[in-house]
Amino acid sequence: MQLKKTFTILFLTASLFINNTFAQQKANLTQYVDPLIGSAKHGHVFVGANVPFGAVQLGPNNIFEGWDWCSGYNYASNTITGFAHTHLSGTGIGDLGDISIMPATGKLLLEKGKKADDQDGYLSNFSHQNETAKAGYYSVWLDKYSIKAELTATERVGFHQYTFKKGAENPHLVIDLIEGIGWDAPVSASIKQLDATTLVGHRHSTGWANDQRLYFVIKLSQPLKSIALYDSTVVKSGTTLSGKKLKAAVSFNAINNNKLQIKVALSPVSIENAILNLKTELPGWDFASTVKSADAKWEQELSKVKIEASNTTKKVFYTALFHTMVAPSLFNDVNKDYLGTDKKVYKKAVFNNLTTFSLWDTYRAANPLFTILHPDKVSDVVNTMLAIYKQQGKLPVWHLMGNETNTMVGYHAVPVIVDAYLKGYRGFDVKLAYEAIKQSAMQKTDGIDYIQQLKYIPADKVNESVGKALEYAIDDYCIAQMAKALNKTADYNYFSKRSKLYSLYFDPSVQFMRGKLTNGNWRSPFDPFSSKHREDDYVEGNAWQYTWLVPQDVEGLIKLFGGDKPFTNKLDSLFTLPLDLGTNGSPDISGLIGNYAQGNEPNHHITYLYTYAGQPWKTADLIRKIDKDFYSSKPDGLCGNEDVGQMSAWYIFTAMGFYPVNPANGAYVFGTPLINSASISLAGNKKFNIKAVNNSADNKYIQKVVLNGKPYTKSYILHKTITAGGSMQIYMGNKPSASWGVKPEDRPISTK
């Protein structure tokens, strides 16, 4: 009897433990992350293993087939040519793909395969049925070699685990220092065997980023049998080789227990620092534990926003949140050493140096999201930008691996810095920050010199004049706001005037922003639908799309149209008239509703403009359509380039019910929540809880808002209200409210 009682207690205890463990697993938010979302068509997302903001993005590369392989991988492919340690996510240009390793068996092949059935090159086919992608973990079965490949990572170390079939013939690795993605090509490389399990070297390359420098150490879990070093395809004697196009073939007698593990640590500074990174971050060989640690790091970050919604919405939401944390990525070592833009080594910095700033995209929503969810990283972003300013003489435009690419237009480090300052961040040199943002606006390039004279940019003198001018006006508005906060009255007045120069491009006779020639005439003929990629008056867009790019002064834009009614009438037409770009239109113009393009960032605020004119229900209608048509949990679940987190940041904000139309005024405009509730964890152990009451597919219109127990009639909410913590109930209904958000005094305000 006693034995039976003891057994019952043990059984119940075990059941409770199992149930508790299952409940914990069930509660994990990483289960909703699917890194394959956005890997098809034009999403260009990174697929592989990484940790939040990690320097290493370890993942598979396909045979490169063009623009849709900018990240090295596209879901349309079924080939793998190697597993590389650096990747971009969602960009429109391909680069990186450093230090590619391909496990193989059988005859040694030195040339990378060029097509799926290539028998003379190293590569393998694979099936998506035998592929697993999770936060911090990736695995795939290599059909050709019967190898199970598994990948995970720490911040600066990639960890490979390859399971070979028993008795595999001639198991070996091809380490390719030639291979890169897209524009990337090697400039110099070296590889050296230190001992039977350790290789070190470097790979310097040029591409989108002109001068990329990377050092590495490769640690093997078992001694190699032999190593052959190749310059191109010519074998060289010895265990050390320097050159330009290097490869190494590493062979083994047999694979111990059929499992080969490889650790690869990177450094932008030196081989010695790569070794230090390895010893510090991943001294052991416990692959499962490293996977668990990577998952825990993602869980910690994802847990900053806990939502209630359908499983599909959770999958889209948490994958989007995941995608906002691939970059900016670390560009330093564990001792805080980093390589500056001036190619000098800066030792033991007081901040974490970062890279991959896609600012033309991310200043709109991805960077503002940082100020809510990642307050500990905001100063790192600003300090990196200020270091770049000191090293290259200007703030970053599109910075990559210690290089200025000068891609896209505007000086959009400005709104990021100003937004941080106005929201109370002070972990940087404010005087230097103001000097840097002002210098950005006083350059003599890309038409900025015309703006300095308070003149329009002539379309016959400067390409993309309208697109550039509208972006400059946003940045100048931000400078004016920081000048005001610092009591710099003259600067405030001057930059405020510059922020209004958008009006010089508005032709009231056609109600479009359009190019104006040196002689003062409008450029003719004029077709508001037409777009000639990077060769007209706009930037990856047309007049229909760019006419609305005045998020810093929506009230002023409404006045140009003659009031709310003509403004909303024109806005209605944007979403109804069919698109006709003509020849040579930009592939970035995607995710279409009429002429509106969700797939391209200058459009992202437009749906929210109805709220400024007292018609918030139209914003709600469009957001629900965008959610339904352009975001899904499938591989083609993004309608355009992810653009380093911006496409996903739009979704994160929008799903919670609001969006930063103005990138630096500390306010978010209400739309329609896509989730039922959200709890945002904030600094100081505070929380801001959002409840969408009676939310459903039909109940998409906000009826009223209750904030901290009191009626709240504004159709916007302030950043400081959210970060103070509290609760908000958004009551939803199936018909537009006749009163909520309609009165002029309740509408969003561009500038107080």
From TrEMBL:
<dbReference type="Pfam" id="PF17678">
    <property type="entry name" value="Glyco_hydro_92N"/>
</dbReference>
<dbReference type="InterPro" id="IPR014718">
    <property type="entry name" value="GH-type_carb-bd"/>
</dbReference>
<dbReference type="Pfam" id="PF07971">
    <property type="entry name" value="Glyco_hydro_92"/>
</dbReference>
<keyword id="KW-0732">Signal</keyword>
<feature type="domain" description="Glycosyl hydrolase family 92">
    <location>
        <begin position="273"/>
        <end position="734"/>
    </location>
</feature>
<dbReference type="GO" id="GO:0030246">
    <property type="term" value="F:carbohydrate binding"/>
</dbReference>
<dbReference type="InterPro" id="IPR008928">
    <property type="entry name" value="6-hairpin_glycosidase_sf"/>
</dbReference>
<dbReference type="InterPro" id="IPR005887">
    <property type="entry name" value="GH92_a_mannosidase_put"/>
</dbReference>
<feature type="signal peptide">
    <location>
        <begin position="1"/>
        <end position="23"/>
    </location>
</feature>
<protein>
    <submittedName>
        <fullName>Alpha-1,2-mannosidase, putative</fullName>
    </submittedName>
</protein>
<dbReference type="GO" id="GO:0000224">
    <property type="term" value="F:peptide-N4-(N-acetyl-beta-glucosaminyl)asparagine amidase activity"/>
</dbReference>
<feature type="domain" description="Glycosyl hydrolase family 92 N-terminal">
    <location>
        <begin position="32"/>
        <end position="267"/>
    </location>
</feature>
<dbReference type="GO" id="GO:0006516">
    <property type="term" value="P:glycoprotein catabolic process"/>
</dbReference>
<dbReference type="GO" id="GO:0005975">
    <property type="term" value="P:carbohydrate metabolic process"/>
</dbReference>
<comment type="subunit">
    <text>Monomer.</text>
</comment>
<dbReference type="InterPro" id="IPR041371">
    <property type="entry name" value="GH92_N"/>
</dbReference>
<keyword id="KW-0106">Calcium</keyword>
<dbReference type="GO" id="GO:0005829">
    <property type="term" value="C:cytosol"/>
</dbReference>
<dbReference type="InterPro" id="IPR012939">
    <property type="entry name" value="Glyco_hydro_92"/>
</dbReference>
<dbReference type="InterPro" id="IPR050883">
    <property type="entry name" value="PNGase"/>
</dbReference>
